[in-house]
Amino acid sequence: QKEVEQDPGPLSVPEGAIVSLNCTYSNSAFQYFMWYRQYSRKGPELLMYTYSSGNKEDGRFTAQVDKSSKYISLFIRDSQPSDSATYLCAMRGYSSASKIIFGSGTRLSIRP
Amino acid sequence: EAQVTQNPRYLITVTGKKLTVTCSQNMNHEYMSWYRQDPGLGLRQIYYSMNVEVTDKGDVPEGYKVSRKEKRNFPLILESPSPNQTSLYFCASSFQGAQQNIQYFGAGTRLSVL
Fold first, then answer.
1. Kindly report the CA angle at A102 between A36 and A91, in degrees rounded to 5?
2. Which of A5, A24, A72, A100 maximizes the CB count within 10 A of its CB?
3. Which residues does A43 contact at the CB level (< 8 Å), separation at least 6?
4. Strand partners, B64
5. Are B42 and A105 in contact (CB under 8 A)?
6. How far apart are the first and last CA of chain B?
7. Beta bridge partners of residue B45, listed in sequence order
8. pLDDT score, position B8
9. Residues A60 and A73 sit within 8 Å (Cβ to Cβ)
């Protein structure tokens, strides 16, 4: 079983829709939870990260962490065609020696 | 401009011919790392370095070597490439500690081994 599971999609939604992207994980030692966005032919770039449980909002993006269920989500409101990309969840433990474990990514397409 | 620079961007080679992919960052980051990205498998760490002269294996180190003689450079060496090393490779860098969550990635190197 992978430490981090992510639905690969592809996910296609109309412009303006609310998008929900999700990951589950098995390692209860994970404390930091990240979302990276990767455009085609580019390297991933960090969107946002949270520490432990709770919500974090940044503009149209909201990250949620439910440690009791080992489940994290990224919501995108008022989705735009420019949001079309692959979204990778990632997580790591508290220690500085702890490595980041990435999900396999969900490909998202926003239809104009 | 803060960036991680990888070269080359594309490389086609033959089995057994040694090659080096270079990585350089201009952000004075202590932590540098190499990943490979394969369909359905996501990003898997090959090697990482916490600082100059400090390197360690990631999840898939077999067939790869690295060195960290200077803080800004972290080359990836394939001594004898094989077809199963055909992949998309990314170099990344960050500061240590909690800042390690903020990884800066290069644009990637697409390698084909025939």
1. 80
2. A72
3. B4, B90, B92, B105, B106, B107, B108
4. none
5. yes
6. 36
7. B35
8. 97
9. no
Question: Mean per-residue pLDDT for A62-85?
Answer: 96
Q: How far is CA B89 from CA B20, B49, B80, B95, in A?
A: 12, 16, 16, 21
Compare CB distances from A32 to B101, B104, B105 and report the shortest one's residue.
Answer: B101
The pLDDT tens digits for B86-111 are: 999 999 999 987 788 889 999 999 99
Task: Give the integer Cα–Cα distance in Å for B100 and A39.
Answer: 21
Q: How many CB pairs under 8 A join A and B?
A: 56
Cβ distance A8 to B40 less than 8 Å, yes or no, reads yes
Q: Cβ–Cβ of B96/A96 closer than 8 Å?
A: yes
Using a CB-CB cut-off of 8 Å, the residues of chain A touching B48 are 99
- The whole-number pLDDT of residue B72 equals 97
CB contact under 8 A, B4 and A43: yes
Asked if B101 lies within 8 A of A46 by C-beta distance, the reply is: yes
Residue with the larger pLDDT of the pair A99 and A107? A107
Residue A110: count of CB within 10 angstroms of its CB? 20
